[in-house]
Amino acid sequence: MNVITRFAPSPTGMLHIGGARTALFNYLFAKRHNGKFLLRIEDTDRARSTDEATAAILEGMDWLGLTPDEAPVMQFSQAARHTEVANEMIARGTAFRCYATPEELQARRDLGEEKRQAAKAEGISEAEKTALLAEANELLAPYRSPWRDGAPSPSADAPFTVRLRAPDGGDRILEDGVQGRVTIQASELDDMILLRADGTPTYMLAVVVDDHDMGVTHVIRGDDHLRNAFRQIPIYEAMGWDVPTFAHVSLIHGPDGAKLSKRHGALSTLAYREMGYLPEAMKAYLLRLGWSHGDQEIFTEAEAISLFDVEGINKAPARLDLEKLGQINSHFMRLADDDRLFELLKPLLEAEAPLSEAEAGRVRTALPHMKDRGTTLPELAAAFAFLRDIRPIEMNKKARKALSEEGLDRLAGLRDELQQLRQWTAETISLVISSYCADRDLSMGQVGQPLRAALTGGLPAPDIAPVLEWLGQDEALGRIEDQTAKAGT
Question: N or C, which end of the chain is more exposed by having fewer CB within 10 Å?
Answer without folding.
Answer: N
